[in-house]
Specification:
Layout: H1 6-20, H2 25-94, H3 107-124, H4 130-136, H5 145-152
Amino acid sequence: MIDLGLSKLAIIGVVALIVIGPEKLPKVARMAGTLYGRAQRYLHEVKSEVSREIELEELRNLQKEVQDTAQSIKQGVEQSISESVAEVQNAWQDSSGHDYGQVPPSAEHLARKAKEFRRKRLVRTSALPAWYKQQHGTRMHVTSGAARVARFRPSSKPPASFY
């Protein structure tokens, strides 16, 4: 900015006192101070807005770079998946001339598989963790109804006497 020393300010003050006069000088000085403050605030606002615009532009560039990188990664993954699917299909078709996908499973086989799935799913989706079941004596494996009856059936031996 302007380099104003004490001597230059004194000269400006003496000239203003002579030109403006002693009655109007306080009003003019007050007005000059308010204008100077407004100018400083305006410059500060302009500087902050310019810096915000620069940061916003940097963020836009960064977002574009990230989107480009994500798009290239997505294309690479899709390409590798399609190559893997093609390899599996070729291997499936070339495997010893048998077409395993065309043999329909029997009804008994499907029923057995469904029963096994339901039994395993019950164990898998239980709400309590295995360590909690073990600690509190809760069932950890699915057992059949006949096995449970046999386990809890009273024995044929008379109870032992403590006397």
